[in-house]
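Budget justification note: compute hours in this period were largely spent on complex prediction jobs such as the one shown. Inputs:
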Amino acid sequence: MQSELNESNRISKRLVLTAAIILIAVPLTIAFGIFFLDDKKYYIISLLIIIYTMIPFFISFEKRRPQARELLVIAILCAITVAGRAAFVMLPQVKPVAAIVIISGVCFGPTSGFLVGAVSAFVSNIFFGQGPSTPWQMFCFGLIGFLAGILFRKGIIQKSRFSLCIFGGISVIVIYGGIINLSALLMFSAKFSWKALMTIYAAGIPFDLVHAASTMFFLVVLSNPMIVILDRIKKKYGLIET
Amino acid sequence: MKDTFSGLHPIVNFTYFTAVILFSMFFMHPVFLGFSLVSALIYSIYLNGIKAAKFNFLYMLPLLLLVALINPLFNHEGVTILLFINDNPITYESIIYGIASATMFISVIIWFSCYNSVVTSDKFIYLFGKIIPSLSLILSMTLRFVPKFKAQIKVISNAQKCIGRDVSNGNVLQRARNGIKIISILITWALENSIETADSMKCRGYGLKGRTSFSNYRFDKRDKSVLGTICGLILLMIFGMVLGENTIDYFPSIIFKEITIISAIVYIGYAALLLIPVALNIMEDIKWYHLKSKI
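Corresponding output:
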């Protein structure tokens, strides 16, 4: 009961913070871009907005002073994700990141899913080199983990291979592919045009399909054993979902 | 070669790279782009030697050409039409813009490669440990766990080999099943281990008030003067930005401010800002050379 109360309290606080950022900071940034930068610096403005949307998660996580156990579990999941990406680094686009992030989101809740996604994207880029697309990757994987947690809680996806695979495939193509391709376009194109966007999406299709297929493969292979282990640990040590 | 700039306080390193990478993304004026690209090349070769030079020429040069070519194909703005391809005009402005944005793209990537070798993860965690303590703890633990897992997976796989259940035993299906088994053993081990670590952290007072963290960075006089210089030059750049010295219109036709004394000062200031690490290294080399010859 107490934890439920805390939970709803926390979510509403985050909602307020998110709303404040979305309603005040994002329009201000866009206005700054239009009036002071002559509506030409799409990349910097979009980068700022992406960073703003991640701030509420990080602040609300810091604010509630997480327990050491919680931190350790998240760090372990991130490390598994990073090690998994390192193991398949030779094969382009074959990344187990999304699969493990989805499993974490389903087992430990939306906030943990977001953190595992964002932190593992950041840390794996420490190993493979940071670049201008790091914040975008953090945001995409974080969002995939967050959505997995939310949809599981709402009962839309289950802890079954089939439903996780469908969610994994769709989320990688729509969220990851959709956002990363857009960021690539904004990075080196002067004017935003629908034609260029369509072309870059078309060019990205093979990569997104490989990424989605590999995510589904990893979900088929890993979901059952990992979910069993994570649920067992949760029960054994009484870890709460976040 | 030892990089003097890396030896400075993390705040100095981080401020420098934030400013330089943002400015490189921001300033599309050809003079600024050229300075940024050349300084990024010099610094990356200074930091990483032949490897960086190879990387820059093998990957960055083709990428530059590709990005420069893509732009005119999709961007048909601009007043000076050079030719038509399939009824689509190819304009002089869009070709120039393509080259400019390709240069920007490449120099940002090269600056990031310098960032990666100067701002190491321990510096990053030192900088953000105060602001986001829990997250930076997660970060540093993740960095530690990755090599630990690599070592542990060898231990597990050797133990499994003893009972004939390694990835090198059996047919393909058997091997795959053994591989999954090894991964689940690793995950179980890691999680159990982490709970133990967490409990022992709690016993030692993690999260209590008044705990300090160890760091061996000291903000000394040298850091102060370099940071002061960087901040001064950043202000000069912002001043130049307000005056419009570093902005350029590519469409519909290329318009930029005439070069005056003020713009020359801004250009020199930008070059100075970009070349601070290289200059520090050269100064240090000269100092070292003189010290050596005295002995």
